[in-house]
Design brief:
Blueprint: H1 2-15, H2 20-40, E1 43-50, H3 59-72, E2 77-84, H4 96-105, E3 113-117, H5 119-127, E4 138-144, H6 145-148, E5 156-161, H7 165-175, E6 181-185, H8 190-193, H9 196-203, E7 211-214, H10 220-227, E8 234-238, H11 252-262, E9 267-269, E10 281-282, H12 287-302, E11 321-323, H13 324-329, E12 342-344, H14 350-434, H15 441-454
Parallel strand pairs: 1-2, 1-3, 3-4, 4-5, 6-7, 6-8, 8-9, 11-12
Antiparallel strand pairs: 10-11
Helix pairs in contact: 1-2, 3-12, 10-11, 14-15
Length: about 450
């Protein structure tokens, strides 16, 4: 940008003078052209893939790195991707043709960034650094520290991995303490053979309790036969197969899938990419974390920082993570897992899967039960009320009848008392008249007539 400002300032200075208006217009056009050229030029990034972009241990990392770099870099990126197929079969290869091809790709100048992905690509760039744009910044990625820890120049930095083989071995022995036999599945390419000595040292402290069997010189077919006939108390440690013992290129994930289909022993590995595809789990190295750190470093370098100032800590195994399906398949109790472990792919229980459906149905059932109970209560109250009302009606009817009878009795008594009293009085008067001397027969006859009338 400072060079751009200097060019613009120089152009404007030359045009100040006679015909200022016309020259100012030309200066503005020059400015627009310069800015357009400056913003239109994309950053050129050379990506060197190890072995193959399809099936190699670094293919998933490559895909994520490219995708995230294009998404996160604010301007255009021009990607040049080259695969080192020759690293499959020989460590001492002739680099001349590939080096010449890369140089011809960049006849207009060195790339803005070189990104070797995986140990073979890192070693290729290191061998040919003097001829492959020595002033261009290099970002080594997806390779162990033993490939990247060297006297790097100011234009080189790394986002490395730190594999803790002993931790992976301890993890499988902690989950299956009765293990007596360990089959180590590894490819036979030169880069894979270079790991064997390091892994021998990692397994050495455990040789008094386990038998170690190496499968790196076997073909995939032979590996499958042995996996299908594993003895009891045995496990498989899977570290990827790029090229089998017959020199045939293989897809690392494909081989794992084939082994998982026939294996009679649990399979352990060190990459999170393999979790959910056959391995039990453990302290796995995260490809996502590796790609995020690599992209962050690449953006800083493309933004103008010196590679020697971009220091990124190596990516190590993370929190122990396990596949619940494999744990149950091999009868590994959760109690044996390290504290704080993460368990994925746990099949949901009926309660966890249908909890809200059950709660909703239960709420509806309780509401209906409450409604039915309320209706039954109201029905009982109504029946009790009806019974009480009926009883009161009967009592009232009886009271009315009693009152009616009493009233009628009083009326009848009143109606009877009057003539009976008159009869009694007339009988008394007749007796008195008969006692006279002489008796008054005429009046007695009148009184008898009254008595007959009253009766």
């Amino acid at each position: 940008m400072s060079r751009l400002r200097l060019r613009i300032k120089s152009a404007v200075g030359r045009f100040v003078g006679p015909g200022l208006g016309r020259r100012m217009i030309l200066a503005v056009l020059l400015l627009i052209s310069a800015v357009s050229n400056a913003t239109a030029a994309p950053k050129r990034v050379l990506i060197l893939h190890s072995l193959s972009q399809v099936g190699s241990p670094w293919s998933e990392f490559s895909a994520r790195f490219v995708r995230q770099l294009v998404q996160q870099w604010s301007d255009a990126v021009d990607l040049y991707e080259i695969t080192l197929f020759s690293e499959r079969n020989s460590d001492a290869i002739d680099d001349d043709h590939l080096r010449e091809y890369i140089v011809k790709l960049f006849t207009r100048g060195a790339p803005d960034l070189i990104v070797p992905i995986g140990p073979p690509a890192v070693r290729f760039v290191q061998r040919n650094r003097a001829d492959l744009f020595p002033s261009a910044p290099v970002l080594n990625t997806a390779a162990g520290e033993r490939y990247t820890l060297r006297d790097a120049d100011a234009n080189e930095t790394s986002v490395a991995t730190r594999a803790n083989w002993s931790e992976l071995i301890q993890n499988s022995l902690q989950l299956l303490p009765k293990t007596r036999s360990v089959a180590v599945v590894l490819g036979n390419s030169p880069i894979e053979q270079s790991r064997i000595e390091i892994m021998h040292r990692a397994y050495a402290p455990y040789m008094d309790r386990i038998e170690l069997i190496w499968w790196n010189e076997l073909t995939v077919e032979e590996m499958l036969k042995r996996a299908a006939a594993m003895p009891p108390n045995s496990v498989i440690h899977y570290y990827g197969v790029a090229t089998d013992g017959a020199g045939v290129p293989q897809g690392s994930q494909r081989v794992l899938n084939l082994l998982h289909a026939v294996a009679t022993a649990p399979i352990f590995g060190g990459l999170d990419l393999n979790l959910g595809n056959g391995i039990v789990g453990g302290p796995l190295l995260s490809i996502q974390q590796l790609s995020e750190r690599a992209v962050s470093a690449a953006i800083r370098i493309l933004g103008g920082e010196r590679p020697q100032d971009v220091r990124v800590s190596p990516v190590e195994g993370g929190v122990p993570t396990y596949d619940d399906r494999e744990l149950r398949r091999w009868n590994i109790s959760d109690a044996r897992l390290p504290p704080g472990s993460i368990i994925l792919f746990r099949e949901p229980t009926f309660w966890s899967e249908h909890r809200w459906t059950v709660l909703t149905a239960l709420a509806i059932f309780l509401a209906q039960a409450a409604m039915i109970g309320l209706l039954l209560f109201e029905r009982r109250r109504r029946r009790l009320a009806e019974t009480a009302s009926r009883r009161r009606f009967i009592e009232l009817t009886q009271m009315n009848r009693s009152l009616t009878v009493s009233t009628m009795s009083s009326s009848i008594a009143h109606d009877l008392n009057q003539p009976l009293g008159a009869i009694l009085n007339n009988a008394g008067a007749a007796e008195m008249l008969l006692k006279r001397d002489p008796p008054d027969i005429a009046q007695v006859q009148d009184i008898l007539a009254d008595i007959r009338k009253d009766d």
